[in-house]
Amino acid sequence: MLLNQNQELTLKERFLNLNFTFIAIIIILAFIGCLTLYSVAGGNIHPWALNQGIRFLVGLVIMLGMALMPPEIYYKVATPFYIFTLILLIIVNVAGHIGMGAQRWINLGFFNLQPSELMKIAIVLELAKYFSNVPLENIRTIKGLIIPAILVAIPVALIITQPDLGTSLMLLFCALALFYLAGVQWWKFVLGFGAVAAATPLLWHFLHDYQKNRILTFLDPERDPLNAGYHIIQAKIALGSGGIFGKGFLSGTQSHLNFLPEPHTDFIFTTFSEEFGILGGTIILFLNLILITYGYWFAFRIHNNNYFGKMVILGLNTNYFLYVFINIAMVTGLLPVVGIPLPLISYGGTVILSVMSSFGIMLSFYVNRDRELKK
User: Fold this and answer.
1) In sequence order, what DSSP letters do the residues of 172-225 get, joined into one string?
2) How many beta carbons lie within 10 A of that of residue 186, not counting itself?
3) What is the C-alpha separation between 328 and 375, in angstroms, rounded?
4) Which residue of 118, 155, 208, 234 has the fewest CB atoms within a 10 Å radius of its CB?
């Protein structure tokens, strides 16, 4: 539906302009997640599948609600939401809920909120707002990068101290992608990566022992097969034992006999692949590839004058891509284990709600793709 750039859509028109194929793929992936969680629990909807299903339905309602909102709302709330999320990160570091040796959550009684997941949305909105209001010639100067660099550095530093190296690196890489898309010259990235590489020996001393073990185990999983290397070795066994077609639903021995660590969260891809084989794992990869391709296609369909909308979609979609890429590379031994879940499939509360909210924001801009953003 082509519209005049100043014409606003009615609620009905917004609904009809939703991309229902995109939504259908999201629902299919979430169903696969609930099915796998049902299997991990030995054919029981408790304690994970039912909760995950409820959280997804809540997330679906949130996604549709956010998709039907005018995109101008996201421009207006970008800075307040960033500040609010930053305050939550500070609260976590001062009085957060401790779990599995990390202080990453705020206990709300009925739900453990992880502010770092909200920051992944907040940083994209805030950087997109900044870059959409700054001329390209300013972005290409060192002075023009000071403010966005500070906007990224503060939450990254707060998340690292929780400690959560995986999420902080995801936030950093997503921000760097937005810097590049905004027009920052490539040589500045080369210079930055070179400086980090030169400082690696110094940075090594600031890592926690478990983080050092993860890197050393990634380089040589067999160095400590019963401790640090146990997770990735068992994950590879699960992947290999599934073969092409898998062992069958509810028949995965690695997860059901508790050999596979965290089979319902970080290593759920290997759980599914053991039962449904390489074919099943390929289906998950293919569905995510379609979803990510749709996301980038949304960005190129946005009105040329809506630079903010293009940046938001590209940032949020890149964040989702990093989730999928890092998780699958991690459980297959291509990256160190960093504790990044597989979105829509892994069990979790804040992650699924933040991812669904991201999809809702992307759809909001896509629905209003043929008109300018009224700032």
Assistant:
1) HHHHHHHHHHHT--HHHHHHHHHHHHHTHHHHHTTS-HHHHHHHHHHH-GGGST
2) 8
3) 39
4) 208
Band the pLDDT of 4: cuts 50, 70, 90: very low
Q: How far apart are CA 375 and CA 373, in angstroms?
A: 6
The per-residue pLDDT for range 33-63, each reduced to its tens digit, is: 999 999 988 889 988 999 999 999 999 999 9
Count of other CB atoms within 10 angstroms of residue 251: 12
- Distance between CA atoms of 89 and 133, rounded to whole angstroms? 27
One-letter amino acid of 45? I
Looking at every residue in the chain, the average pLDDT score rounds to 86
Domain ranges of the chain: 11-74+187-367
pLDDT in tens, 196-233: 777 777 766 667 676 677 676 666 666 666 565 677 88
Note the pLDDT of residue 88.
92
Q: What is the pTM of this model?
A: 0.90
Q: Is 229 exposed, middle or buried (0-12, 13-18, 19+ CB in 10 A)?
A: buried
User: Which pair of tokens denotes residue 344?
Assistant: 């829509």
Is the per-residue pLDDT at 3 higher than 50? no
The CA distances from residue 133 to 139, 182, 215, 302, in Å, are 10, 11, 40, 17
Amino acid at 119: M
Nearest to 155 by CA among 139, 170, 133: 170
Q: Is 3 helix (H, G, I), strand (E, B) or coil?
A: coil
Q: How many CB atoms lie within 10 A of CB 316?
A: 28
Cα separation, 167 vs 298, in Å, equals: 25
